[in-house]
Design a protein that fits this description.
Structural class: mainly alpha
Number of helices: 26
Largest sheet: none
Number of domains: 3
Distance between the termini: 57 Å
Number of strands: 0
Radius of gyration: 28 Å
């Protein structure tokens, strides 16, 4: 079948090939785990789907955190089961606390580290809940869990390593170089580019950095150097917005540096910027020199410069706290219901819930994801029941059961390759495997299979309700959290007398939150322009607060200017209570300054109109 034929029917050839390779590796892992005598060989297939990645570095890193998270979670699960004889509630309470804690910590992290942390939570549930009738076998179950996961991880890594792509680092560097060139021309006044458009491009590039960091120390250094360049570009972008034009000699040098970046010669651009010394504008000089320093590290990321901007990244403390409470509360509530009713399939429901309520809380829009997850799990449940009911009664050995299961596993690539069902494919495979432990003689009839399937399917539906009703998760709410945290940062900068000493840390965190706000808002209809304006306004206000600190610290600042700067700083620290007073204080300060300084303060006062509705 040609790629054009597949594309016309909604299939993506690349995804179809990747999913087919993963499904074949899944079948192989189940077969190997069974041949090794492991009790739950289907868990190896689940690990293959969980660890598979299209890029080599991502494959290696996720495989590592898959095993590390499982190891920690298995130990926690064993300890919980060993404590259960004291009182049945110990298991439920301990599991709720553990899943809640891992969910909270996972939401404060990024990338595969977050995945491994959340995995540690629900891996404990898998060990503690799947064989509750035989707590004396928990050590055997834990060892079996570790062995099957390791088998799946090894098979996925070997199957994908030589076929996985390397990642487009060269393309990423070209995009960063093009962005910097456009920014320098915008600063020089020789290009029609606008600040909001450049900010949007910086946000998109910053989001694309993390996938390239996976798999090697060299990749991490490359990403760290790239992020340093983007952070150094942010204050120059703010300087270009509404400030006085740069002197013609400097504008010419900036244009020359942009041309060097267009040619891919970062070293030449660095030399040009390092000698670009504007007269009468010390602040602009400092910003240009900072960009030159970051470019030097970007040109040779193996030896990052000591003066590179710190990578203080945004952490969603509000969302993490809510996610932890939601996950722990859901596990506690339904665990107590299970203890009270004694429902035999309650552990399956709790196991699925531990995954749904924790893992998907790290997604930007878990409510939307739950629709696809529920559909995939429903399909997996139907496939498992059909396999158990129609085919497995004909099997005379566990090997035949695995071979009969394989055609159902090979349906997953068709789901993964189509644009409408690609988000449901992994959950289809996971539930199919979870419900399909090869074992003879068969002990479950059709009614038991239906009840087990309904228990499994209840998990995503319950999690869906949790995401809708308990601390509702939406892109709009995440956007409001970001604006709130940025305003708190602004107030903290203004109110901290030692802010100048921590300038680089404050700026790095605030810049990263602004980029996250812009990127998040671009996924919301009609929210992009407002988020761009709010981000630029808050960043400009933060620079104004820093300037107030600098004026207060300078010994030669005239007393009237010192008093105006002090008043503006104090009112910015109370911006949540009275944004109007802060604006008037900034206007008063701007009248006592001259040139670019006065223009920057006026720009900050104007920006208060953008953030006032969010205060």
């Amino acid at each position: 079948m040609s790629a054009a034929w597949l594309l016309r029917r909604g299939f993506d050839g690349g995804r179809l090939r990747f999913a087919t390779r993963t499904a074949l590796a899944c079948c192989l892992a189940v077969l190997i785990a069974w041949a090794m005598g492991l009790e739950h060989p289907q868990w190896s297939g689940m690990s293959v789907w969980a660890a598979a990645q299209p890029l080599r570095g991502q494959l290696l890193e996720k495989a590592f955190f898959r095993f590390a998270g499982t190891l920690v979670g298995t130990v926690a699960g064993v300890l919980l089961v060993l404590g259960a004889p004291l009182h049945p509630g110990v298991l439920v309470l301990g599991l709720a606390l553990w899943v809640g804690l891992c969910t909270w910590a996972g939401n404060l992290q990024r990338g595969f580290v977050a995945y491994g942390t959340v995995l540690a939570g629900y891996s404990a549930a898998m060990v503690a809940l799947l064989d509750t009738a035989h707590p004396d076998r928990v050590l055997h179950l834990g060892a079996d869990r570790l062995a099957t996961v390791l088998t799946g991880v090894v098979v996925a890594t070997l199957a994908g390593y030589f076929l996985a792509g390397q990642g487009g680092v060269a393309d990423l560097r070209a995009r960063i170089g093009g962005l910097l060139a456009d920014l320098l021309r915008h600063l020089a006044g020789t290009a029609p580019a606008e600040g909001p458009a450049l900010l949007s491009r910086i946000a998109a590039l910053e989001e694309d950095l993390d996938p390239h960091a996976a798999g090697s120390l060299r990749s991490r250094r490359e990403v760290r150097a790239s992020r340093a360049v983007l952070l150094a570009a942010m204050p120059l972008l703010l300087r270009a917005e509404g400030a006085a034009p740069v002197p013609p000699p400097l504008a010419l040098r900036l244009a020359d540096a942009a041309g060097a970046l267009d040619r891919g010669d970062a070293a030449a651009a660095c030399r040009i910027l390092a000698t670009a010394m504007p007269e009468g504008d010390d602040d602009l000089c400092r910003l240009v020199q900072a960009l030159a320093q970051a470019l030097r590290g970007w040109d040779a990321p193996a030896v990052p410069p000591a003066a590179a901007p710190p990578a203080v990244l945004h952490r969603d403390w509000i969302g993490a706290r809510e996610a932890g409470l939601r996950a722990g509360g859901a596990m506690l509530l339904f665990g107590l219901i299970w203890l009270a009713t004694g429902w035999s399939f309650g552990p399956f429901m709790l196991l699925g819930l531990s995954v749904m309520i924790s893992l998907f809380s790290t997604f930007e829009n878990p409510v939307q994801m739950m629709r696809h997850v529920s559909a995939g799990q429903a399909l997996g449940m139907v496939a498992a029941i059909l396999c158990h009911w129609l085919l497995w009664p004909l099997a005379r050995s566990e090997l035949q059961q695995i071979l009969m299961l394989a055609p159902f596993l090979m349906l997953a690539p068709l789901l993964a390759g189509h644009r409408r069902t690609m988000l449901a494919a992994t959950d289809y495979s996971m539930i199919l495997l979870l419900m399909s432990q090869p074992h003879l003689p068969l002990q479950e009839g059709l009614p038991d299979l239906l009840l087990k399937g309904l228990a499994v399917l209840a998990a995503p539906l319950t999690a869906w309700a949790g995401y809708l009703l308990v601390y509702p998760v939406s892109l709009q709410r995440r956007q409001r959290h970001l604006v709130q945290m940025m305003l708190r940062d602004l107030a903290a900068i203004a109110g901290n007398p030692d802010a100048l000493a921590r300038r680089r840390v404050w700026q790095a965190r605030l810049y990263h939150r602004a980029l996250r706000l812009v990127r998040l808002s671009e996924r919301l209809a009609g929210a992009r322009d407002r988020a761009l304006a709010q981000s630029l306004a808050i960043l400009t206000l933060a620079h104004a607060a820093m300037r107030c600190h600098a004026l207060l610290a300078a010994p030669d600042t005239p007393d009237p200017t010192r008093r105006a700067a002090g008043l503006a700083r104090r009112r910015l620290a109370r911006i949540a209570r009275d944004a109007g007073c802060a604006g008037r204080s900034l206007d008063r300060l701007a009248r006592r300054l001259e040139g670019a300084e006065a223009q920057a303060i006026r720009q900050a006062a104007c920006g208060l109109r953008q953030v006032a509705p969010a205060v």
